[in-house]
């Protein structure tokens, strides 16, 4: 039987104090362009809550309204600046400590987020997280198309990504950390789930300890 232990962390609102995608766009394009893009995308933005528009395509559309057909290297450079200069102030120290606790026990830590991988992978590398399952931007000839490549990594898609990632090596124990409706399915899959505001963090066991999938 596998003794693999996996800790799956949502990012926005779980590891961070706020929406990192919004912060990334503000840092990259500035508040004026952000406001103009919000007005241009208003019909799709207001349609998310009642289900009239989809989260993923709307997010990609908003980014395109701000940055346009930017080249990949331009967005990658902006992502690196964001990780180096703005993102550290948005992180929750207690959740970074939780990541380190899992790593110290030999658990595999994976980031599972609806935010784009363009900056998440850069940040994850700084804290020793080697696996990032997240929304991917679509590129054509090195230029951002204004669409996502594949599905938005939210809700049921988080579970689908996790299952595809571990394949036949399902963990003996799965921890899941989240903060919103988009993490409900991932929490339901876990042996030990924590949603912000619902109670204390679960106790940890070392890899090879008790726990059943």
UniProtKB/TrEMBL annotation:
Signal peptide: none annotated. It comes from the Bacteria. It comes from Paraburkholderia denitrificans. NCBIfam families: HAD-SF-IB (TIGR01488), HAD-SF-IB-hyp1 (TIGR01490). This is HAD family hydrolase. InterPro entries: HAD-like_SerB (IPR050582), HAD-like_sf (IPR036412), HAD_hydro_SerB1 (IPR006385), HAD_sf (IPR023214). Pfam families: HAD. It is an enzyme of class 3 (hydrolase). Keywords: Hydrolase. CDD domains: HAD_PGPPase. GO terms for molecular function: hydrolase activity. Its EC number is 3.1.3.-.
């Amino acid at each position: 039987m596998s003794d693999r232990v996996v800790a799956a962390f949502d990012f926005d609102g779980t590891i961070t104090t706020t929406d990192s995608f919004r912060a990334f766009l503000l840092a990259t394009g500035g508040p004026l362009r952000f406001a103009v893009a919000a007005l241009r995308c208003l019909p799709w933005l207001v349609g998310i809550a009642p289900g009239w528009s989809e989260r993923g395509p709307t997010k990609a559309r908003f980014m395109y309204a701000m940055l346009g057909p930017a080249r990949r290297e331009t967005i990658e450079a902006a992502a690196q600046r964001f990780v180096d200069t703005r993102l550290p102030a948005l992180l929750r120290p207690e959740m970074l400590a939780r990541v380190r606790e899992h790593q110290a026990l030999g658990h595999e830590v994976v980031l599972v987020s609806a935010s784009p991988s363009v900056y998440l992978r850069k940040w994850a590398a700084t804290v020793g997280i080697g696996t990032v399952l997240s929304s991917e931007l679509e590129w054509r000839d090195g230029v951002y198309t204004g669409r996502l490549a594949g599905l938005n990594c939210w809700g049921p898609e988080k579970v689908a990504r996790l299952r595809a990632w571990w394949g036949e090596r399902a963990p003996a124990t799965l921890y899941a950390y989240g903060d919103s409706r988009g993490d409900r399915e991932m929490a339901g899959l876990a042996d030990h789930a924590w949603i912000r505001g619902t109670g204390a963090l679960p106790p940890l066991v070392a890899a090879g300890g008790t726990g059943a999938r």
